[in-house]
Amino acid sequence: MIYSLKKRTEKLKALCKKTELKKVTELISVGSIKNKNLAYIQDTSRMLLQSCITGSSKKIRSDSDFTSVMNFIKKNKPENITHNGLIVTRKESSIEYALFLKSIFCFLESIGLLNQIDYFISPPQLRIKLGKKSKNFNASDLIHSDSWTPYNTDKSYTLYLPVYGDCKKNYVAFFKPKNSFETKWLEPKKFIDGDEIGKKYKDAKINYKIGKFVVSDCATLHQSILKKGAQPRVSIDMGFILKKVFKSPQNHSHVRTKEIINTGYSQLMVFNDSYDDSLKKILSRKKQSLANRKIIKY
Ligand SMILES: [Fe+2]
After folding, report:
1. How confident is residue 216, by pLDDT bands cut at 50, 70 and 90?
2. Which domain holds residue 22?
3. CATH assignment of the domain containing 164
4. At residue 72, what are phi and psi to the nearest 5 degrees?
5. Which pTM does this prediction carry?
6. Distance between CA 144 and CA 185 in Å, rounded?
7. Do the beta carbons of residue 214 and residue 174 sit within 8 Å?
8. How far is the CA of 74 from the centre of ligand 1 (A)?
9. CA 276 to CA 289: how far, in whole Å?
């Protein structure tokens, strides 16, 4: 059964009590990331991004301020970035991915959230939102609920963490229900068909900026916003499900925290696809893009 608004409000309130999240609306909470956690995630994100981009081109130089990597991405959109900006890690970057995941777990632990999470909707991924809108029917530029996707359920939360780049002209806007809420609004659909539901929501006025993060119930509608002259923005948008909600994963992409929590410590998540395999081929499997993988313990 789809949770009511009342139940969602109570659940978020309980989550805020157990963690460092602060509730700002019935369905939205926010927090500040500690400088050392942010710096750690920024470093591992740069390494992962550089590794994933270099993987598809030999033409790229490495430099400490990262300008050439960003310029390269702006000029030739690399093949291994999906229409919504998800960077699809391949086996050659498994070590960089492990360090990236470790930095995320350190952050989640520091805000008391890690031990509340039972499943991640998929292994956390880095996202780069370039300055151009996507025309896809499920583009994040359209107002949407994450519960509309085939991978989420109506019982997920999403954590939005901007990592670096332009958050002034390239950001996420969040919306809250105006004065009513119907559970059927959360049934799966294409983002492009969500306009009417969007009209029942209003701007929640959440300040999306580096140093802050947002955790929202999936009944929150949101949308990527690109203003004129927008530059790329790198972020982590991570779906998860709390403990005591489901006894087993609800679809192939859900991954238990305990299965991946030691990644970067005593295990690696090794992806089977190589940079020699095209993204088209990976996405044509109709599975989450990091689904083809194995865990190696050491
Ligand atoms: Fe979303």
Report:
1. very high
2. 5-297
3. 2.60.120
4. -60, -45
5. 0.95
6. 10
7. yes
8. 23
9. 15
